[in-house]
Amino acid sequence: EPILNAAPAAVSFHFGLPEQDVIDQLKRQGIVTLASATSVDEARQAAAAGIDFVVAQGIEAGGHRGIFDPQKTDTQMSTMTLVQAIVRQCDLPVIAAGGIMDGNAIAAMMKLGATGVQLGTAFVLCPESAANAAYRAALKSATATGTEMTAAISGRPARALSNAFCHYTRGIAHEAIPDYPLAYSLGKALAAAAAAQGEHGFGAQWAGQGAMLAREMPAAALIKALITEYHAAQ
User: Fold this and answer.
1) Fewer CB atoms inside 10 Å of the end CB: C or N, the chain?
2) pTM of this prediction?
3) Which of left, alpha, beta for 7 (phi over 0: left; psi -120 to 50: alpha)?
4) DSSP state of 14
5) Using one digit for the tens of pLDDT, what is the confidence trace for 202-227?
6) pLDDT value at 114 more than 80
């Protein structure tokens, strides 16, 4: 109800789809709907539900994996492969997401049939970002070349910088990790306690595989740079 009352221009779903009635209400109100998909099957489900745009989230993407059911096998398709597969087998317009850090990558995805692109990690170092100092320092350090998928931080698979939290939890069995969002709440409390002791490697430092390509500049300047690079690559 709060979303319907706020009437945003668009609503994007992650971790699967809501009940059909929710989608129908949004559409009746003229709200554009988007949904993340990590496989062709998930894209087809989105199309069948009447979703307007599918966000093809490749395995390179930072942050939470949008897989509908984390208990099922993850196909782990790259952004490049996933975009092409969905374009060929699904009628929905596709937005590419995962590992896209510059205009060259944007141009490549558009040539593969994407309608648009989604960038996240590319903007973390912008001054407008809410990332804290430790997160920014980690992204600018040599360790930014390493990211890994972990469920220990939040209870759902997500790609993050390989920090102390990741190292500490590698030996923990997946079934021993509390479900999302309980694990996330516990993880945030742990991160705060660690930071109070001067250890900043327990934060949720989400980042995609292109982390080392992140640039530190105002968001407006980055947008202009991306547009210039995109046009030069066409």
Assistant:
1) N
2) 0.95
3) left
4) -
5) 999 999 999 999 999 999 999 999 99
6) yes
- Residue 87 near residue 110 (C-beta atoms within 8 A): no
Q: Are 203 and 154 in contact (CB under 8 A)?
A: no
SS3 135: helix
Spell out the alpha helix ranges (H) of the chain: 2-6, 20-28, 40-48, 79-89, 103-111, 133-140, 164-169, 182-196, 219-233
Q: Tell me, what's the pLDDT at 58?
A: 98
**What is d(CA 69, CA 82) in angstroms, rounded to the nearest whole number?**
18
| Residue 212 CA: distances (Å) to CA of 21, 34, 190, 209 | 42, 28, 26, 8
For 209, phi then psi, to 5°, come to -65, -15
pLDDT in tens, 28-74: 999 999 999 999 999 999 999 999 999 999 999 999 999 999 999 99
- When computed from its CA atoms, the radius of gyration of the chain, rounded to whole angstroms, is 18
| Amino acid identity at 104 | N
CA distance 175 to 70: 12
Residue 142 has pLDDT above 90, yes or no: no
3-state class percentages of the chain: helix first, strand second, coil last, to nearest 5: 45, 15, 45
Distance CA 67, CA 128 (A): 29
